[in-house]
Amino acid sequence: MSAVIGAPLAVERRSVFGAVRLGMGRAARLPAGDAFLVFGVAGGLSAEVRPGDLVVAPDPSAPMLAGALRRLGLNVHIGQIATSDRLVTGARRARLAATGALAADMESDLLRAQAGDRPFATVRAITDSVGAPLWSFGTLRRGARGLGVLKDAAPALRQWAAATGPRDVLLAAPRSFCAGVERAIEVVERALETRGAPVYVRRQIVHNAHVVRRLSDLGAVFVEEVDEVPPGATVVLAAHGVAPIVRSDASDRSLDVIDATCPLVTKVHTEVKRYAGRGDTVFLIGHGDHEEVVGTLGEAPSQVVLVEDVAAAGRVTAPDPRRVAYAMQTTLAVDEAEEIASVLRERFPALHGPRREDICYATTNRQQAVRAIARGCDLVLVVGSVNSSNSLRLVEVAEREGTEAHLVEDLSEVDLAWLENARTVGITAGASAPPNLVDEVVAGLAGLGPVTVRETSVGDENIRFTLPKEVS
Fold first, then answer.
1. Would the pTM of this model clear 0.90, i.e. be above it?
2. Gap between the Cα atoms of 443 and 432, Å rounded
3. Which of the residues are catalytic?
4. Within 288-333, where are the H helices?
5. Can you name the residues that pair with 280 across neighbouring β-strands?
6. Coil, helix or strand for 107?
7. Above 50 in pLDDT, residue 100?
8. Which of 127-136, 169-178, 347-356 is predicted with the least confidence, judged by mean pLDDT?
9. For residues 37-75, b (16+ Cβ closer than 10 Å) or e, as one string?
10. Which domains does the chain carry?
């Protein structure tokens, strides 16, 4: 696929080695090519853009291109770039600013129309802006700065060009929200509807920054501990579960408590209490820094022993090897957790375990689904937040299949460099990641060239958990 990088003026073109001159204003023309990236200088229309800033037009691949530019240390905005038939000054700048555009040039719309349905991207460096008009002291200095920023941007522009081309996209199914996450989000939404804002939430309701941001916009207030919640206010306990001391502290403050703990996490808490109640030492397989594990440990701190890996499983001891049991964090990698459990069973023949493994159905399904596509891919993208255990495990599962895999919060974190030689891309999402984020990644890849999308499903999910009585 032939990707063209070009600029209207010769002085702009020289900022990027190998770029072509496209011509100025109505004379601008695209050469032969399959994809086009147009760069140059522009006038700023909004007070939020300053000389030396870059503006990327909101084409489908813009979040990835903007991310590449930001990784170079540049100040980048994504926003509309208006095309004018003359230089923008005075009242004309104000009129264009009223449309919501961030910058103005004389070619972008004309060239975009010439590109048709071929991939197209626009990057403009601001040289004049509100408060620093074109014909004012410092114009030459600002112009030189803008051209220098374009030169600094060159590596990202070349990455975009190298990433263009046709692709196969394999979607793993199931992916995105599970029943426990949907329930937890609905709990907060219902609480806001019935109690009114603010509704306080201890920790992140689920481990996803986009979910937390949206609920914050609706009026949810996220706190670290219940002692930050005003006495008598409503507090929602997050899906990962809490230790009994948290419930006790909430009671002491007379808080209106709504428990959004996932029922599958509650099941693990119940198992641990049952084992501990009969005098067993309980080996808890999980990651010590995860909120779910912290809450489960709190059920019987003197009797629960954390086992984080195979090495730890080979070292742990119990006062009475005949009275031992184990439980698991629900979001572990299935094969890794089973390996740890096997070591414990071998060392402790009397070991009791749950009738069904604790790893939740959604975690298991998503791991099976990503495994089903990984070997046929050059690259796997897992949509999810960095503090999402089940999302991190999906990356590990794909990597164990010998495939390059990366966790991304959203499209803006997809590194163009990963895509240069990736013609088959697998996409999945952790159980706490909204499904629209996957749609945006697919659309972003389509902004780099034609995509053929296929879905590989390992089964359907039709589980739904009932809401707590406080909001049902």
1. yes
2. 21
3. 292
4. 291-297, 310-313
5. none
6. coil
7. yes
8. 127-136
9. bbbbbbbbbbeebebbbbbbbebbbbbbbbbbbebeebe
10. 3-163 (3.40.50.1580), 167-176+362-457 (3.40.1010.20), 179-261 (3.40.50.11270), 264-347 (3.40.1010.20)
